Amino acid sequence: MTFLSRALLVIGTVLLSHACYSAYEHASHMSAITSRQHFPSSSVHSTASSSPAPTALPFDISIETVLSVVLICAGLVMDAEQLKPIRWRVWAGQVEKESGGGGPFQGLENRVGFMDIRKQRKEFADWIRDKGNTKGA
């Protein structure tokens, strides 16, 4: 991780957490203000529930959120590994060079085939039988 990408990630994370906290504070202040307007302290509280009018976030909080997301994305992109080639021929050539030959399907071509369980069970039974005959002799 380079210094610049790490710095962008840290700054973006701090800005995003500050934007979230600011949005929370704005919402709590707006709900407190609207509840005081609906229920003044001198009057009796009514039982009818009225939802407070939604207020939009201030422009600076929205800008801070967008800026922090852009900084985080830029930091992640700068820190990402080099992309793999898209063309099959180039990819297969790289895999063949890295694996020392054999191509990209070397693992599939060299895998163990199906096992014949009945054959192995018969061989084991014959081995046990022969082992028992040699002990008794």
Task: Give an overview of the whole structure.
The longest helix has 36 residues. The model has no long low-confidence stretch (mean pLDDT 82). The chain has five helices and no strands. It is mainly α and 137 residues long. It is elongated, with a radius of gyration of 35 Å. α1 runs antiparallel to α2.
Key features?
137 residues; mainly alpha; 0% strand
Count up the helices: 5
Gross morphology: elongated
How helix-rich are the residues, as a percent range?
55-70%
Computed over alpha carbons, the radius of gyration is 35 Å
Number of strands: 0
Structural class, by secondary structure, is: mainly alpha
Low-confidence stretches: none
User: What share of the residues does DSSP label as strand, in percent?
Assistant: under 5%
Q: What is the typical, i.e. mean, pLDDT?
A: 82
Largest sheet: none
Give the CA-CA distance, first to last residue: 72 Å
Order of helices and strands: HHHHH
